[in-house]
Design brief:
Blueprint: H1 2-21, H2 35-47, H3 49-52, H4 88-97, H5 119-130, H6 135-144
Helix pairs in contact: 2-5, 4-5
């Protein structure tokens, strides 16, 4: 009986950890006018801009205000928000699976895009977003991927 409980605990522990420990190669910012940039931009505009805005500025007062349902507003993706504080694994998996996989009891509006975007498309969106970050923030974020 103890062995069964131990195995169940190990299974759920490693399943939970696997989401955070799958290695996504470092996602470099895309260069303007490249195929990656253009695809990332098109996908961002189609899937992300309705909340995070076309210019990546996020919703007004995103950091202090809640919407009518009590949810946080969409943060900027242009380097003014907190996106660059996260490593690529975190950014990738939040985009793919939604915040509920990372934040216990999360009931917000940031769902995942695993049913709409391929892994490569998600990486292209993130590369596009990173192209708007100031160089200092971009370099800081790249170092997070080295941990």
């Amino acid at each position: 009986m103890r062995i069964n409980i131990f195995l169940i605990i190990i299974f759920f522990t490693t399943e939970g950890l696997s989401l955070n420990h799958n290695v996504v190669e470092t996602i470099k910012k895309s260069t303007i006018k490249t195929k990656q940039f253009n695809e990332g931009k098109a996908l961002y505009l189609k899937n992300c801009a309705s909340c995070h805005k076309k210019n990546l500025s996020g919703q007004i007062n995103w950091d202090v205000k809640l919407d009518k349902d009590g949810h946080r507003l969409a943060p900027p993706m242009n380097g003014d928000g907190h996106t660059w504080h996260h490593d690529d694994n975190t950014l990738f998996y939040i985009t793919k699976y939604g915040l509920s996989k990372y934040v216990k009891n999360y009931k917000g509006k940031m769902g995942g895009f695993s049913d709409k975007l391929t892994d490569n498309q998600i990486k292209n969106v993130l590369a596009y977003v990173k192209s708007y970050w100031p160089e200092q923030k971009y370099q800081y974020q790249l170092k997070l991927n080295e941990r």
